[in-house]
Write a structure and sequence with these properties.
About 20% of the residues lie in helices and about 35% in strands. It is built from 4 helices and 8 strands. The strands form 2 sheets. Strands 1-4-3-2 form a 4-stranded mixed sheet, with helices on one face. Strand 6 and strand 7 form a beta hairpin. The longest helix has 12 residues.
Length: about 150
Amino acid sequence: MDEREILPRGACWLTPYLTVTDAEHSLDFYERAFGFGRGNTMAAPDGRTVHAEMSYQGRTVVMFAPEGAWSPMKTPAHCGCESSIVLYVYCADVDVLARRARAAGAIVLAEPEEMFWGDRIARLQDSDGYLWTFATRVGEFDPKKMPSTC
């Protein structure tokens, strides 16, 4: 079987499924902050969005549901814990994206900087406490630039 027979159109092999506080807020935030596009959504009988998908560069990049929609899970911000994963996304210009995300309300944890593995990255946090790293490829891995603490 090839990819077209297994994956829905635009899907990735791995797509994070997040729990968010409010799906409509997250749809708006991820669109304004990160440039993600709205995909399929499902509404409960009361009209509240209980499932949402968002795409980036033609592929589904994240799916989410609000707290309580399908499970008792909470966002990192509401469970009182730090997110144990970082979502790493490549983009065309990390400096532009970091400015856009800040203007949309993201917390910039680390301003864009070049890393020894060849990416220029910015680290961000959304209002639900999820950690995001956006990266632009700017070079190749340079072991001479690797910190001694690695």
